[in-house]
């Protein structure tokens, strides 16, 4: 039995494809021990090894006796996790075994399991992540536990790599591909008639969301939806003299920030959108558009042009003394 | 080679004696719990640790030819002109002493260019410089008779003849000039972070953004309106700073975030193109977005107690605005020269996650947030620009307080089988609105199975009900509103959602992924307003590694969003109904072939097509529709990359965009509606091409 999911299987392949390297494509072989042990046995062995603490006699030098031939292994030293001059790097501590656990008898033929990460690891995401989280504890990751990706059993190594000069997921040009490989609805959204410019990587998911979780709704980077929007749309912040209640309360009352069939990412177009909340003699009229009786949607300013906004232009609020009706 | 031992390891060594070998089975492999009693670190020399020093990476440059007759294509190509050039770089430097620097430039010189420069010592300090540009383009043919476009004073030509309708404006067509509606953001920032030897670290970041361009606006007098090009010249400065403290099982952070927004144009004045009506006004002035500031301080913390993690945040912020009021053409006494507006934003959050045993983990959270608008309520005289505007009005500074509670648990029933369930509660308290309080209770669950070989699947469902205090339509809004109206953000609502996804990997090289989602919002107590909306979507994705060098992927997504609403023409029960049907199809495919011509050539093609359409129907005895509102876009990118020498690679990209959209309500001549002077039809129909030749050089 092999536990994999789409994310762990495909992201490295996608990243490899997205990077324009000419290197050989990554082969994904399961670890040696997976052939003879079930995931439960592997985990039990790793637990036992971790508790026993039989670390290698010479640290990284012991490991590299065999593994130095692997380019992937040696690439660790190109990145920050391989820095040997930092007191906070794993290489200043238990070296390779900081992350991969005590060597034990692994050096005798490589059949004894080590903690391994990424697409082919049979170890649960929670156990893999316990290694990373022992150092990576800060305000940007404080909501990982019980957060969206944690609950979905996403391993840190599903998105990140450390045996590299530069972690590809941190590049804005690959980020969208990684996120949308699971978030397919959002992938479709950004191709709609209007959306934030994510289709062309001008904006990326992490501009608004924290993939490691946050204490805000939808893992937003700011305390609320509106404050997240204000971080780029500061002009909407006001506070203005005449506020439009749903605007001050929640931008997503009218907009879908991921994309919409309507211009301006509006959930519905005017006048219908406005008529969902306004029903006076003026705003409650039945506005038919094109009819068999010969009327046209372009006949009048209630349905044609910018519809309600032809007059109520200041729909996000007005700071004009006479702006109560959002006309000034 | 000599090493500094990190703090964690030192602590471990110091505490090693308390570990009893072979007994403690940890719940994970947290380094703090590692049993290091047997490690002899003095023998760990790391002779084979080979840290490459010097400069590595690639630099590149490209030149492109852009063939387009519609500026809208610049959204896709990031090129406004016929020729475009760019610089790319991905350069790293590591010195022998451990000093590192990196330069990343992507499409620098294009309209979406980025640059990121970092330099410092790992885990000590880092200095960052960054630049980023975001540009969005609507049209280059917004037709306007106004002069002075780009500024805050729009005037009509001296020979302009006002008239009662746009068709009668004799100088309209002779005065029209095309304008480009586009917005460009240029962001530059710098930051410094520092990590202390011991527990603490700190950072400071500053960013300035300049946003310039033109956007659509409308200026109106009574029932007559002109579309206007509103100047955008905004400058926003952001400053973020914080200090973090960290221990073995806790950390805390104090952060400050400040933002100052400045608008070059505080008002937009425009000539009346029509014969003056109410108030005999020949010029109008609207207030543009006022300068404002926002400051937030937050304190966060987390504590690990065994298998329990507690985290919390409190924050307090202020948004203020004190720009002098627009008085041009106003003429009444003002209660103050500026609003001196202030909104206090505060919040508190506490979350606890605890693993009870290998099977069960529980979580609970509470979240409080408050928007308290402190702005004074005053009396404001409204000028007569229409027949319904009142003489005097009072501002209604809105307050809203939200409480949210969540309880949840996840159960690992067996390896590869997991059940999540939870209960969410939300209460909103509002001022000056039709309903003071709304309460929402939601139950949700998700079941995930990955226990079967090559299959991964989950199903998720939720059901929530929202109700609240008595709904008093029109208490604060307008006495003219229908009392059966229920605004959808305040109305009673039953919300249900079900979503399922299956991923199958029949062979290692092939993955097929299928998903579907259905959501229903039933506004069960609404007679006037939005009564129901449904959202159905499904998608299929496939990815196949044909050989080690050949990969193909494809996806398809369909979404239908249908909404029903009703209205009344006589202040009574609903007597007209409208249906809005939105449909989106997105199709995409990609193919890449690597290592051709003795591993020197890589070829690929990516294609996407999307078709967004929307149909609105209104019925009251007779029935009408809003025409064919759609946008269809094909995008193709064909590329080939050739490794000419060991160091140098050449790449050729061909990009094509075929775009077509229509907005029937806006497909009008500038005088198409008698009481509107419009920008004219701004539908698009174009095919644009970009060819780019680039080279990259490996350092």
Structure report:
- The complex is a heterodimer of chains A (328) and B (699).
- Chain A has 328 residues and is mostly helical.
- Among the domains of chain A are: 6-159, no CATH class; 172-225, no CATH class.
- Chain A is built from 13 helices and 1 strand; from the N terminus they run αααααααααααααβ.
- In chain A, helix 1 runs antiparallel to helix 9 (172-180).
- Chain B is mainly beta.
- Helices cover 3% and strands 61% of the residues of chain B.
- Chain B has helices at 7-15, 74-77, 172-175, 596-599, and strands at residues 54-67, 83-94, 99-108, 114-121, 125-144, 153-154, 177-195, 200-221, 224-246, 250-263, 267-271, 283-287, 292-305, 308-321, 341-355, 360-373, 379-381, 392-394, 400-414, 417-430, 437-449, 455-468, 493-507, 510-522, 529-545, 550-567, 576-595, 601-620, 622-625, 629-643, 648-662, 676-677, 684-698.
- The two termini of chain B are 28 Å apart.
- The relative contact order of chain B is 0.09.
- Strand 1 of chain A pairs antiparallel with strand 29 (622-625) of chain B, so a sheet runs across the interface.
What secondary-structure arrangement, pairings included, does this model have?
The complex is a heterodimer of chains A (328) and B (699).
Chain A: H1 6-18, H2 39-52, H3 60-67, H4 71-74, H5 96-100, H6 125-133, H7 148-151, H8 156-159, H9 172-180, H10 184-189, H11 225-230, H12 245-249, H13 272-275, E1 290-291
Helix pairs in contact in A: 1-9
Chain B: H1 7-15, E1 54-67, H2 74-77, E2 83-94, E3 99-108, E4 114-121, E5 125-144, E6 153-154, H3 172-175, E7 177-195, E8 200-221, E9 224-246, E10 250-263, E11 267-271, E12 283-287, E13 292-305, E14 308-321, E15 341-355, E16 360-373, E17 379-381, E18 392-394, E19 400-414, E20 417-430, E21 437-449, E22 455-468, E23 493-507, E24 510-522, E25 529-545, E26 550-567, E27 576-595, H4 596-599, E28 601-620, E29 622-625, E30 629-643, E31 648-662, E32 676-677, E33 684-698
């Amino acid at each position: 039995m092999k536990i994999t999911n789409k994310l762990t299987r495909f992201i490295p392949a996608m990243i490899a494809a997205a990077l324009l390297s000419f290197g050989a494509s990554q082969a994904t072989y399961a670890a040696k021990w997976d052939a003879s042990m079930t995931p439960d046995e592997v985990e039990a062995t790793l637990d036992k090894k971790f508790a026993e603490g039989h670390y290698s006699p010479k640290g990284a030098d012991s490991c590299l006796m065999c593994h130095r031939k692997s380019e992937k292994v040696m690439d660790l030293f190109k990145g920050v996790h391989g820095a040997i001059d930092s007191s906070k790097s794993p290489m200043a501590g238990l070296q390779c075994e900081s992350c991969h656990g005590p060597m034990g008898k692994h050096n005798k033929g490589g059949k004894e399991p080590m903690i391994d990460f990424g697409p082919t690891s049979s170890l649960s995401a929670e156990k893999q992540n316990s290694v990373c989280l022992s150092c990576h504890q800060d305000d940007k990751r404080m909501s990982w536990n019980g957060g969206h990706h944690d609950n979905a059993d996403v391993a840190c190594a599903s998105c990140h790599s450390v045996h590299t000069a530069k972690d590809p997921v941190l590049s804005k040009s690959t980020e969208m591909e990684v996120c949308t490989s699971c978030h397919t609805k959002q992938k479709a959204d950004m191709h709609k008639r209007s959306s934030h410019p994510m289709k062309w990587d001008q904006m990326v998911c992490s501009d608004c969301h924290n993939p490691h979780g946050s204490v805000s709704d939808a893992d937003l980077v700011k305390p609320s939806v509106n404050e997240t929007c204000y971080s780029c749309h500061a002009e909407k912040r006001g506070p203005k003299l005449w506020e439009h209640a749903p605007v001050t309360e929640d931008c997503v009352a009218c907009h879908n920030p991921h994309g919409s069939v309507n211009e301006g990412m509006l959930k519905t177009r005017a006048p219908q959108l406005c008529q969902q909340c306004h029903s006076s003699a003026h705003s409650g009229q039945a506005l038919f558009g094109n009819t068999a009786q010969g009327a046209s949607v372009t006949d009048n300013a209630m349905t044609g042009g910018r519809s309600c906004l032809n007059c109520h232009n200041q729909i996000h609020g007005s700071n004009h003394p006479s702006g109560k009706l959002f006309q000034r | 080679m000599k090493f500094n031992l990190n703090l964690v390891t030192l602590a471990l060594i110091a505490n090693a004696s308390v570990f009893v070998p072979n007994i403690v089975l940890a719940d994970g492999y947290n380094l703090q719990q590692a049993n290091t009693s047997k490690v002899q670190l003095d023998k760990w020399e790391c002779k084979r640790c080979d840290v490459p020093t010097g400069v590595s990476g690639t630099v590149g440059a490209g030149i492109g030819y852009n063939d387009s007759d519609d500026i809208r294509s610049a959204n896709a190509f990031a090129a406004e002109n016929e020729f475009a050039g760019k610089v790319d770089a991905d350069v790293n430097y590591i010195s022998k002493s451990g000093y590192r620097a990196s330069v990343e430039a992507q499409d620098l010189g294009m309209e979406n260019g980025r640059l990121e420069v970092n330099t410092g010592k790992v885990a000590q300090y880092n200095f960052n410089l960054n630049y980023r540009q975001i540009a969005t383009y609507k049209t280059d043919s917004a037709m306007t008779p106004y002069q002075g476009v780009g500024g805050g004073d729009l005037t009509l030509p001296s020979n302009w003849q006002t008239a009662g309708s746009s068709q009668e404006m004799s100088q309209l067509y002779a005065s029209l000039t095309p304008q480009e509606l586009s917005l460009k953001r240029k962001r530059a920032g710098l930051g410094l972070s520092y990590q202390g030897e011991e527990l603490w670290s700190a950072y400071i970041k500053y960013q300035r953004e300049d946003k310039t361009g033109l956007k659509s606006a409308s200026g109106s007098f009574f029932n007559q309106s002109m579309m206007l090009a509103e100047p955008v010249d905004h400058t926003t400065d952001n400053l973020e700073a914080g200090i973090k403290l960290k221990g073995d099982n806790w950390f805390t952070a104090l952060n400050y975030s400040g933002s100052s927004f400045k608008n070059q144009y505080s008002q937009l004045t425009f000539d009346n193109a029509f014969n003056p009506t109410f108030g005999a006004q020949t010029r109008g002035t609207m207030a543009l977005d006022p300068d404002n500031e926002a400051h937030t301080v937050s304190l966060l913390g987390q504590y690990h107690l065994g298998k329990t993690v507690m985290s919390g945040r409190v924050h307090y912020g202020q948004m203020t605005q004190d720009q002098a009021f627009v008085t041009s053409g106003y003429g009444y006494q003002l209660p103050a020269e500026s609003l001196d507006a202030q909104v206090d934003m505060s919040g508190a959050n506490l979350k606890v996650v605890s693993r009870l045993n290998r099977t069960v983990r529980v979580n609970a959270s509470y979240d409080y947030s408050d928007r308290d608008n402190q702005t004074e309520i005053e009396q404001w005289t409204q000028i007569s620009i229409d027949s319904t505007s009142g003489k005097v009005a009072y501002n209604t500074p809105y307050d809203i307080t939200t409480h949210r509670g969540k309880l949840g648990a996840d159960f690992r029933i067996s390896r590869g089988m997991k059940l999540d369930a939870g209960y969410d509660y939300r209460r909103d308290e509002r001022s000056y609105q039709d309903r003071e309080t709304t309460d929402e209770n939601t139950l949700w669950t998700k079941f995930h199975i990955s226990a079967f070989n090559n299959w991964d699947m989950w199903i998720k469902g939720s059901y929530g009900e929202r109700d609240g205090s008595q709904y008093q339509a029109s208490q604060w809004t307008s006495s003219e509103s229908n009392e059966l109206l229920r605004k959808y953000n305040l109305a009673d609502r039953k919300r249900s959602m079900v979503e399922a996804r299956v991923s199958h990997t029949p062979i290692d090289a092939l993955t097929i992924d299928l998903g579907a989602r259905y959501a229903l919002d039933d506004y069960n107590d609404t007679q006037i307003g939005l009564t129901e909306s449904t959202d159905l979507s499904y998608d299929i994705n496939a990815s196949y590694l044909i050989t080690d060098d050949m990969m193909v992927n494809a996806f398809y997504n369909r979404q239908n969003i249908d909404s029903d609403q009703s209205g009344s023409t006589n202040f009574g029960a609903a007597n007209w109904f409208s249906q809005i049907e939105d449909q989106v199809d997105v199709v995409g495919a990609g193919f890449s072939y690597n290592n051709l011509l003795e591993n020197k050539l890589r070829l690929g093609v990516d294609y996407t097509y999307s078709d967004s359409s929307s149909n609105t129907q209104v019925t009251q005895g007779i029935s009408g529709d809003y025409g064919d509102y759609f946008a269809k876009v094909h995008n193709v990118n064909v590329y080939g990359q050739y490794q000419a020498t060991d160091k140098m690679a050449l790449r050729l990209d061909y990009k094509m965009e075929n775009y077509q959209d229509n907005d029937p309500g806006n497909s009008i001549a500038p005088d198409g509606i008698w009481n509107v002077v419009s920008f004219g039809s701004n539908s698009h129909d174009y095919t644009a091409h970009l060819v780019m030749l680039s080279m990259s050089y490996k350092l």
